[in-house]
């Protein structure tokens, strides 16, 4: 399809704007043996026939399709993998063995009664797994079903689903579309073949990357020309490296080198470019983004793994009592069988009752005992947990407090297996871009000629001021009013006047031309011109508003241009060689359009940390305009250019404290002869051939970027997502460690660290890096050859020194922050250094890893997970976060605007980072306590019930006879005690959600495992043992055959004793769960008391059934037990005696050694929070973990600093500190 009518703008060769980004391979390779052999060996064997995808349908060139899958299972693997997952659970393995044994003739129960519950439990769990994986499959289908324009034949393009793409296909990708596979860029809508790419999904960076096609493929710029296009690409095999590519293109009998600047990676997005043509090199799971992902793991919670150990203990007890039972049976058979004439079998060869072979009798009876005492290991536990977790997941999904009204997206528990893990998180590993920030920059403040402008407050300042105000309210007894040295806007929730996107500046001194009245108006004019001229952006006319939209490489650049426009310097046009600015000095005057010729542009990159443009104004004056990091600019200032350095440095420090991103602005006036001489050398370096061309360009640029005159500095607010600083503060108070892993450069990450209060002024920063301090010395080839081992040794030395410094620190308030880049991390993650790196990181209050690849994110997550041994949570929003989300114990995906890859791989998804606070501090806390209490109670009730069977076995000569009716045993776990325990797991609340958020330290009960440690577990087991002894021996004593239990003198038979004992068990265990609950609703009352009532209803219904069905239980309640007062009295007595120790224990604990939630419960019960606000605030201040990050730590550090200054000024005055 021709591009007629839109080529006017496209014919501009924007590549001429760039000095470093668009270096094309300057050497055309000859088709020699050596040239191609290097790309045919191991690791470089891929051959792609361009525009001939059919050649890749058969081996050896058959490559994977573009279909991707993030599911755990497929149709073939579901049954074996899901069954394996189920039988990883020890209890299920035991019940499988019991079900097999139930097929033998010596089983005490029918085979159906053993197999059916197991099949139900396993089937239900597998169905849940299938449902959750089906959701992942549907998400995959959405991605695989996206469409892209593909060359079919004869120069005709048509749309195909992504999954149908094959290697060799030629595709046409249009503006703002994602690339469907890894492509070789052939041409673009720009005449010189450049395009702009956003890689936020890959590396988290929002800056646009410039890609440029090979010169030879530039003519391939129309649909029709692909009719005859053919070529061969020989390149590297699939690998996870995002930043490297080695390959050749054989086209028109010539061989051309391909480097990463020609490669477009899957899941990156085309920006600021109408369309591109590309040929598919890697598809599906061969693409670099998928190579960085890992297989969907099967995650199990710590509680579930610990539960397996409890099952082992109970299984050992089961085997022990079964052995005791079988030995007892063998002894009875040998010594007493001849006296039991009424038990003599008809079959004389019966091995079970043969006194001559007691050992065989004991072994056979062992099978009976293993099945009979199986109630010690509750099969219904797993079903109940699955039901409870599904209900908990529903509560998470339906929580309106985590519903994003703007996006219409709720929170989602994508798997319910890990609910309780949410309450045990120790370390959070977070992405930055799109997770903490929303990729919007606002121009907020500036410093010009040593004067700070901008009266607005950043989000950090407003939140800190609000926190300080609440702090001062609480500390109302202070003897001295403490005032911050820098003013903080007292209006905390105010709406900014400005509604202009990217511009939140407020200061009448600069607006509406008022700057012309300022003393340094000339310097201010230069400041505004630097903003309007020093960039690579392209203006686009907005036909609706009549204004201009700017397609900038970074949000910062866009914010500067918007600010320049609002100050009266509107960037309106760019040509091949000029930039046009409409300057308006006052509202009464019309704009003056000025032309500035762009002579050279030295763009920004992570090594240079600065950008310069050389322009000639209308008067013929040549200027170098430079902006960059303050440390880089200040060291390049001339002696006469430092007039404002001291004041600007102070302002930069204040802006940094406010969480703002800063750049210093400077300029230099050039003599014509000086410029011409430099330009000649610059052109020579730019056209040189060789590996050191970039180093030569760096050296020449350095010659020009010196003797600068400082103008001022900008302060831009990287807009955090709503509530991020407050969320981090609460999570820090909850005792959580927070690491930030980002693909952004170090300066950007540090700025966000300040904005989030992960960093603050006064915090000692430990920066680990292998890069040389002087960028001009970075000869890449020499460094690669000489410094790999040296860099590792240097990094090791840095870590050792830092660790020693941290350990020698004596100031209890001192805080350290560890900042490391991707290259340093490469060495730090090696086996011989990773333990030392982790030790240093643990000692630091916050950790920020910059320039990390997706693979490194996953490796860091694994290091923390395995090294610390505590629960880790990873949170991110892009495809580059998938690896760490899957590697962490819990993965949380942010359902943002940049694709759904992170959500698809996650265990939980939320739409905003701030919802993480409620997900962990509320739902995590509740789910952990609910599941822990539920499991402990489950083991308690099954031990209390199961051991009574064993006691009766001993009483009945280990005959295998159960004291309970089969129906009683079947209904015990399924009906009579299931609903109360499910209600405990689903609805229990020790405190309300509001209190959880007000008292974040309550969360530490989970990471410390207070409710599921071995002392708690063994305590509940001991309680079960005690209850079983009371239940059995009191029941046997009361209903013994030696005494009547009714007024007419009747004694109790086994059915009456079993039914009465079972009644006592039902009452005892249900009263126990009622005592355990802290929060009652009608649901809990219905479940607990309804379960007891259902027991009596069952007895009545079962007793009225035919004796053929009810057997010895016929009319047992109505005629036998009901009329006997001893039955009712004994039930009450035994239930009370069973629960008395627990009641005494909990009463003593609440009175003498209360836990945090006990204190809060009493305060709320007596309504002291409403009557005594000071006490409530005091308790709230106590209920937070001591932390060195977050707003709270920041404010406390500020107050300590101010009080220290006041102590120096007023030594005679005592300042009262309230902790």
What does this structure look like?
The chain has 1219 residues and is an alpha+beta fold. 44% of the residues lie in helices and 16% in strands. The chain contains 40 helices and 34 strands. The strands form 6 sheets. The protein has a 9-stranded mixed beta sheet, with helices on both faces. Helix 8 (302-336) runs parallel beside helix 27 and helix 12 (521-533) crosses helix 13. This is Phospholipid-transporting ATPase. The active site is at residue 431.
Strand order of the largest sheet: 15-34-33-32-16-28-31-30-29
Helix content: 40-55%
Overall morphology? elongated
- Mind describing the biggest β-sheet? 9 strands, mixed
Averaged pLDDT:
82
Compute the separation of the termini in Å.
72 Å
β-strand number: 34
Active site: 431
Organism: Rhynchospora pubera
EC number: 7.6.2.1
Cofactor: Mg(2+)
Concise description?
Helix content is 44%, strand content 16%. It has 1219 residues and is an alpha+beta fold. The longest helix is centred in the C-terminal third of the chain and has 41 residues, at 915-955.
Set down the secondary structure blueprint.
Elements: H1 7-10, E1 28-29, H2 33-37, E2 46-50, H3 78-86, H4 90-101, H5 111-144, E3 147-153, E4 156-161, E5 170-174, E6 182-188, E7 194-198, H6 200-203, E8 208-212, E9 231-235, E10 247-251, E11 254-258, E12 263-264, E13 269-271, E14 275-282, H7 288-291, H8 302-336, H9 358-372, H10 380-397, E15 412-413, E16 425-430, E17 437-448, E18 451-453, H11 459-474, H12 521-533, E19 538-541, E20 548-551, H13 555-567, E21 569-574, E22 578-583, E23 592-602, E24 610-616, E25 622-628, H14 630-634, H15 645-657, E26 661-670, H16 672-686, H17 693-704, E27 709-720, H18 724-733, E28 737-741, H19 746-755, E29 764-768, H20 780-786, H21 788-808, E30 816-820, H22 822-828, H23 834-843, E31 846-849, H24 854-868, E32 871-876, H25 882-887, E33 890-894, H26 901-905, E34 908-910, H27 915-955, H28 966-976, H29 978-987, H30 993-998, H31 1014-1038, H32 1054-1076, H33 1082-1104, H34 1107-1110, H35 1116-1121, H36 1125-1152, H37 1156-1165, H38 1168-1171, H39 1173-1182, H40 1190-1209
Parallel strand pairs: 16-28, 16-32, 28-31, 29-30, 30-31, 32-33, 33-34
Antiparallel strand pairs: 1-11, 2-9, 3-4, 3-5, 5-14, 6-12, 6-14, 7-8, 7-13, 9-10, 10-11, 15-34, 17-18, 17-27, 19-20, 21-22, 22-23, 23-24, 24-25, 25-26, 26-27
Helix pairs in contact: 3-5, 4-5, 5-10, 8-9, 8-27, 10-27, 10-29, 11-40, 12-13, 16-17, 18-27, 18-40, 21-23, 27-29, 27-31, 27-32, 29-33, 31-32, 31-36, 32-33, 32-36
